[in-house]
Amino acid sequence: MTKDEMDKVATFAASRGKLMSLAYRMLGSRAEAEDVVQDAWLKWHLADAGTVRTPAAWLTTITVRLAIDRLRHLRMERQSRATGWLPEPWLDGIAPSAEDEALRSSAMSYGLLLLLERLTPDERAAFVLHEAFDCDYADIARMIGKSVANCRQIVHRAKLRLQREGDGRRADRKPEPVVDPSAHAQVVERLRAAIEAQDRAQLLRLFTEDAVVLGDAEEVDAGAAIASARWVDQVSSSVHAAGAVTINGMSGVALLSANGAITGLVDVAGVSDGRIVWLCVVSSAGNLREVNATWGARAVMRLLKRIGRAEPVMC
């Protein structure tokens, strides 16, 4: 490998965490984000690095444009599905990767990631770049190929649309006040404990009367008490255990089968007065494939076997 090739590899490696985090927020899928970042690497590998004044900005621009193109195709595919679709959750690692660190530094809750699905690809790109990565409008304009004034208007319009969509998800109720992380974590822990104990009565008490439950594996009736009661009955009869996890930087719950496989990830996306108003349940095999590969029982067993084979350290 030549020095120029090694420099290219090093430059890309330094930006990869940010690119992965950006692509994930744009696409709502870790696998899709990895594909986009791989495509960005191929373009960088073929580019004449000598003509690129700011490699990090060049890579960010390429990634944004690839993600916008990919999102346009994905929106059509997701809208045509018979079942629901939810973003793929991102679980924090015990030993955070560069992607995990980049995700934390530009934190967006899972609930907000879900609302971003309502935006057009250009709106989503501009909003994510401005709100999560603190890019100014001149940089955003260069990346998405629009004027500065247009980008400012796009972000403003996206904020209004997200506010409208967020307010409307609860049957035109007023928006709930922002809940601090500790209060949110307490509600999540009560939910986890009730699931673990299979306490149906306590589970039902955790939901407001007009709570909304969204799922990705099947059509979930967003009919207030009916939806929450139906989900409570399902989780009470099928879940073997429930563990605490961190989903997109916030407390969540992992539903476990008897063999230790993760069968669902539960995100409490809305809370009011200590009760759940909006719940997201990710349980499709596709969205849980990466999670189980990293955190499921089989992954843990593989890790234990590697540890068991390791040579003892001599002091």
UniProtKB/TrEMBL annotation:
Residues 112-162 form the RNA polymerase sigma factor 70 region 4 type domain. InterPro entries: ECF_Sigma-70_Domain, NTF2-like_dom_sf, RNA_pol_sigma-70_dom, RNA_pol_sigma70_r2, RNA_pol_sigma70_r4_t2, RNA_pol_sigma_r2, RNA_pol_sigma_r3/r4-like, WH-like_DNA-bd_sf. It holds the Pfam family Sigma70_r4_2. Residues 14-74 form the RNA polymerase sigma-70 region domain. Interacts transiently with the RNA polymerase catalytic core formed by RpoA, RpoB, RpoC and RpoZ (2 alpha, 1 beta, 1 beta' and 1 omega subunit) to form the RNA polymerase holoenzyme that can initiate transcription. This is RNA polymerase sigma-70 factor (ECF subfamily).
